[in-house]
From TrEMBL:
Cofactors that this protein relies on: Mg(2+)
Annotated residues for binding of 4-amino-2-methyl-5-(diphosphooxymethyl)pyrimidine: 47-51, 79, 118, 147
GO MF, any single term: magnesium ion binding
Primary role: Condenses 4-methyl-5-(beta-hydroxyethyl)thiazole monophosphate (THZ-P) and 2-methyl-4-amino-5-hydroxymethyl pyrimidine pyrophosphate (HMP-PP) to form thiamine monophosphate (TMP).
Protein name per the record: Thiamine-phosphate synthase
Binding site for Mg(2+): 80, 99
Assigned EC number: 2.5.1.3
Transmembrane feature ranges: none
Functional pathway: Cofactor biosynthesis; thiamine diphosphate biosynthesis; thiamine phosphate from 4-amino-2-methyl-5-diphosphomethylpyrimidine and 4-methyl-5-(2-phosphoethyl)-thiazole: step 1/1
Keyword Oxidoreductase set for record: no
Lineage: Bacteria, Pseudomonadati, Planctomycetota, Phycisphaerae, Phycisphaerales
Reaction equations catalysed: 2-(2-carboxy-4-methylthiazol-5-yl)ethyl phosphate + 4-amino-2-methyl-5-(diphosphooxymethyl)pyrimidine + 2 H(+) = thiamine phosphate + CO2 + diphosphate; 2-[(2R,5Z)-2-carboxy-4-methylthiazol-5(2H)-ylidene]ethyl phosphate + 4-amino-2-methyl-5-(diphosphooxymethyl)pyrimidine + 2 H(+) = thiamine phosphate + CO2 + diphosphate; 4-methyl-5-(2-phosphooxyethyl)-thiazole + 4-amino-2-methyl-5-(diphosphooxymethyl)pyrimidine + H(+) = thiamine phosphate + diphosphate
């Protein structure tokens, strides 16, 4: 029963406050220190986003992230790779618009993984909802160099998303160029969750930045 409860709770999408996208190449400190500092600060979710690791190394990395996240009662998501997510015991997988479609991932893993989808307009958000996504990324909110060729959606898209009756029940993570300084603009729009990478990864004191972001929810 305990196992069943664990499985059920980990496969229910929450409205996270702050999700760290962890990418080693962006980190100033060792990636494990960044992860631990962010978890100590209280981030609700970590998404491992590594585009260049070979499968075996990615699986090892994912297993470490999952272990640390679960010790800290935080959610672990793997970018792009349902296979790695499943094999590492992660809670979910995050898909971009050109990754495997949600329906294909459901065929592979059913509802044993949360499935998140990146969206940059309402059509994509509605399609993600119709396909049964558990949560959506909404962005990019601000200019960013972390993503290749981002097309700016801006806070206007976040406002549209939050006002749309057909998608409003899906948990969301606003993403793209978010910092403690521009976060109030998103709070004004009613944001409930954000995903950030470089502002935490590249910091000299990642835990402090994570705390500053989380403070907006106090
Ligand atoms: N998707 C939209 S913007 C983005 C991704 C993966 C990059 C987010 O990183 P940062 O460093 O917080 O702008
Ligand atoms: Mg992707």
């Amino acid at each position: 029963e305990q196992q069943l409860n664990a499985a059920l709770s980990s496969t229910r999408a929450k409205q996270w406050r702050v999700c760290l996208l962890l990418t080693e190449s962006l980190c100033k400190l060792p990636w494990l220190d960044v992860l631990d500092q962010a978890l100590d600060a209280g981030v609700d979710c970590v998404q491992l986003r590594e585009k260049d690791l070979e499968a075996s190394e990615l699986l090892d990395r994912a297993a470490t992230v999952v272990e640390r996240c679960h010790q800290a009662n935080s959610t672990a998501i793997i970018n792009d790779r349902p296979d790695i997510a499943f094999a590492s015991g992660a809670d979910g997988v995050h898909l971009g618009q050109t990754d495997l479609p949600v329906a294909a991932v459901r065929k592979l893993v059913g509802h044993q993984l949360l499935v998140g989808v990146s969206t940059s307009n309402l059509d994509q958000a509605r399609a993600a909802k119709a396909a049964g996504a558990d949560y959506v990324g909404v962005g990019p909110m601000f200019p960013t160099t972390t993503k290749h060729k981002p097309v700016l959606a801006g806070p206007a898209y976040l406002r549209e998303y939050l006002a749309d009756e057909r998608v409003q029940r899906m948990p969301h993570l606003a993403i793209g160029g978010i910092t403690p300084d521009n976060l109030p603009k998103l709070m004004d729009a009613g944001v409930q969750g954000i995903a950030v990478s470089s502002v935490i990864c590249a910091a000299e004191q990642p835990g402090k930045v994570a705390l500053r972001l989380l403070q907006e929810w106090d």
